[in-house]
Design brief:
- Helices cover 44% and strands 19% of the residues.
- It has a five-stranded parallel beta sheet with strand order 2-1-3-4-5.
- Helix 1 links the parallel strand 1 and strand 2.
- The longest helix has 22 residues.
- 27% of the residues are buried.
C-alpha cells in the first residue's frame, strides 16, 4: 500500500483519482484543490508522516504545481517523496525548472498507466538500493 497525497483543482478528476487509487489498494492520505492549501496542509500535518507519492496538477488557482514544488523543496522530507506531475502543460516547460519530478504524465492519460507509474516510482528506490549493494 502506497500513501498518496493529491493536489488537483478539478473536483471530478480528484474524485476519479481517489476511486481508482483506493481500488488499486493505495491509501489517499490527503487532498487539496490548490497549491496554497496543499502547502499549509503538508507543512503542518505531514512533517512526521510524509506521503510516499505526491500527485500534482500544474494549472491551479492561487498557487500552481511548480510554485508549490518550489516551496516544498524547503521541507526536509520532500526529497524522499515521489512526485508525479500530471498536466496538459508541455513537459519541456515543466522540465525547465530545477525541481526534482519523478514522473511527468500528460493529460489526458489512461488510468491504467497511473498504476504503472506509481509502481515504477516506488520500485525506483529498491533499484537504487540494489545498485548500491
Amino acid at each position: 500500500m502506497v500513501d498518496i497525497y493529491i493536489v488537483e483543482d478539478d473536483e471530478n478528476l480528484q474524485e476519479l483519482y481517489t476511486l481508482f487509487l483506493t481500488k488499486m489498494g493505495h491509501r489517499i492520505v490527503g487532498q487539496s484543490f490548490n497549491g496554497e492549501e496543499a502547502l499549509i496542509d503538508l507543512y503542518f500535518n505531514f512533517s512526521n508522516n510524509r506521503p510516499d507519492i505526491l500527485i500534482l496538477d500544474y494549472h491551479m488557482p492561487i498557487k500552481n504545481g511548480l510554485e508549490l514544488l518550489e516551496d516544498l523543496t524547503k521541507l526536509e522530507w520532500i526529497n524522499k517523496t515521489k512526485i508525479l506531475f500530471i498536466s496538459a502543460t508541455n513537459p519541456a516547460e515543466i522540465n525547465s525548472y530545477q525541481i526534482p519530478i519523478t514522473k511527468h504524465v500528460s493529460k489526458p492519460f489512461k488510468f491504467g498507466s497511473l498504476s504503472q507509474l506509481i509502481n515504477e516510482a516506488m520500485n525506483q528506490d529498491q533499484m537504487e538500493i540494489n545498485q548500491q549493494a
